[in-house]
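call fold(seq) -> tokens
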Amino acid sequence: MTDRPIEQQLRAWYAVQVPVTEGAPSALRAGVVAIPRDVVVRPVQLGGQRRLALLAAAVLATIIGGWLLGGIGHQPTPSPSPTKTAGPTAPPTPIDTTSQTQQAPAGIFAAVRMARAVSDTVAWAATPDGLYRTPDAGQTWQAVQPLGWALPADAAFVDAETAYVPLEDGVTIAVTHDAGQTWTSRSVPVDAGAGLASFSFNSAASGYVTFYDPAHYDKPDGTGLLVFGTSDGGATWVGPAHGLQPAFKNKMPKVSAAHGSPFLVSTAAQTEGQPFENWFYTSEDGGATWARLPFPSGALAPKNDLKAVGAIMRGPDGHLLVAPDLEGASEAQVVYRNGDEPSSWSELAQAPSSSSASVQFVSATTWVVTTFGAPSTIESTTDSGTHWRAIDSSLVFQTRNVTWASTETGIAWSTCPAFVSNSCSGSGTGAVFITTDGGKTWRATR
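ret:
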């Protein structure tokens, strides 16, 4: 069984056990609103080990948060349902966010929710205990979380200086533009039961935060979304715009974003005995509007096989690049480009690997492919697949928890034994690994 069926089973369990309308207590919301304003954070240098005390919380948060991420950019074709309405400007309610500067215990990366490398030296990581940043490719880590931060469903690590995270009440958005030294927060007008905030940014100043609409949840025409946008770096939020996540015949659609992509993507699940719904929806405005596109199909991507959008971006010529994740007869990693007719696809390039792998678009011409299983290989191209470089990785990847800032610098994270390597064995010994030589060697931090 791959990670995708496991994810689907966990999502189904969560949907049964936790009501969608369950929100934070009013006392907690009121307490967060009363927190004082911007402060300076003194970074704390971290390292060491600790036991895996919060693995279950991290797994649950992964399932909650995996459903939604989005983006901004080229104007998409509206979905068949009415999806967007004008909304008022969210009142700029400032809430000051003091950083938690206490010394972190050893073993900060025993459970990691998400991580992203954003440059050749800077990476961010979120755990159940805190938010961390490295300025020197993992040699040291600094605790930079704002007061009121709790393990979120999502966070936007935009660049080396900028990050957006929700606070404990879920409707207050904290932003830093100075690498976590100071944070500023604003509340958006969302009622309890609106789900967890998800972010989609294509620059430090411009992007979206999206919530479920509790008044239109899991209905036959799709689940409602409440979308707020900012164009001034989180100083103000405009909205809500009312979006609608499109519905599929096969329930439990997967909504996620590919690495390095500002797109919100929705694909169908697959039900035994029923054909796969061979199309996907994309949104470039946080889910306010959607465009429906067929998956590329052919010998390397059979129409009836389960697919997901592993990587997607819009190139400088306005055309889409897509690398589907495939489960079926073929595991070839193929990049497709659409034509002047958006629903048409042509094969642009095929990665050398024929094993299970994930593709990340670092840019329109630079791609990194991470293969899974033993041995693991890092394949990269800087010329849209005309030439490839392959490096045997010193880590053996069993999960897709790896992101790349360039062909040289990447970050991987794990909670063993789901991730295999020479320096990560046994239960409860999670770690974050950073490479600066294309995957040949990795530095571990626990």
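The CA atoms of residues 220 and 247 lie 7 Å apart.
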